[in-house]
Design a protein that fits this description.
The chain is α/β, with parallel strands linked by helices and about 280 residues long. Helix content is about 40%, strand content about 25%. It has a 6-stranded mixed sheet with strand order 5-4-1-2-3-6.
Length: about 280
């Protein structure tokens, strides 16, 4: 498990100082500088620090593609509530959103032990300068066939639903799929294109790509300097429906076997009671 612990040590109108640690080897301070006063800059500063450590500093020597296998121990109940959705403060949520979208599947809790903080204070210092656009947008990935890509949560959902295999880690699986080489650009039927434009906007140009024999079609909206994967669809849903039917049969059988075993155990317990009496 790759974990980051953070603790806000101090904050003012101009700067928030966040201590961080990944264990015995790596720790230090992040100074998040604000050019203009920001409300709740202690919470915003903590989320910016985590994002910077993950995707800019790359404290785990990799560019994370999903939250599976990661954990984050946050400073306070307030930070935790923002991530879990219990607190919906509009000006803070955009800075934390990457934790439940790009890092979906990560374990989130509140830091209890503070024995590591002194080591962090004595460690190296990173300076990060507040940038609303860069610190609230989706994470940008670089793919062999597509270049710079951002991925919407809806695309991950559709990939899971449209895939004929059962997927334990959807986002990680999708990232492996997108990193393949051999995608080809194709055309979308006019009827489908009309529907997609109504949903995702008529003004932004779109591209459709597919991978040979996958049966999956990827719809990208072209943005300024990158593509956003907004959805994945499959014109022929026969295989998907077969998979869903198989899953229903397996679930039904598993429930039936569990109920049968529970009934068997209950009957056995009753016989034991009669013997004792």
């Amino acid at each position: 498990m790759m974990g980051i612990r953070t603790k806000v040590l101090s904050h003012s109108l101009e700067k928030t100082t966040v201590a961080w640690s990944t264990g015995l080897r790596q720790n230090g301070l992040v100074h998040v500088h604000f050019m203009e006063p920001q409300a709740a800059n202690d919470l915003i500063g903590e989320f910016i620090a985590i994002r910077h450590l993950l995707f800019s500093t790359k404290v785990f020597d990799r560019f994370p593609v999903s939250g599976e296998g990661h954990s984050f121990s946050l400073s306070s109940e307030k930070s935790y509530q923002i991530v879990t959705g219990a607190r919906k403060t509009k000006n803070i949520v955009p800075y934390a959103r990457f934790l439940w979208t790009d890092m979906a599947g990560a374990k989130i809790d509140i830091a209890v032990d503070d024995g590591w903080i002194q080591s962090a204070i004595d460690g190296p210092v990173l300076d990060v300068y507040f940038d609303h656009y860069n610190h609230t947008g989706k994470i940008t990935y670089v793919m062999p066939d597509f270049g710079k890509v951002q991925i919407s949560p809806h695309a991950v959902e559709r990939y899971t639903e449209r895939n004929t295999d059962f997927i334990k880690a959807p986002r990680r699986s999708l990232m492996r799929f997108l990193n393949k080489e051999g995608f080809t650009k194709t055309k979308m039927p006019d009827s489908v294109l009309k529907h997609k434009r109504m949903r995702y906007g008529p003004n932004d140009p779109v591209e459709v790509w597919t991978y040979p024999e996958s049966g999956l079609y990827l719809l990208f909206v072209l943005k300024d300097g990158y593509k956003e994967l907004v959805t994945i669809y499959m014109p022929d849903l026969t295989l998907v429906k077969e998979r869903q039917a198989m899953h229903r049969r397996k679930t039904h059988r598993a429930n039936w076997l569990a109920a049968k075993e529970a009934s068997k155990q209950a009957s056995k317990k009753k016989r034991q009671i009669r013997i004792v009496l």
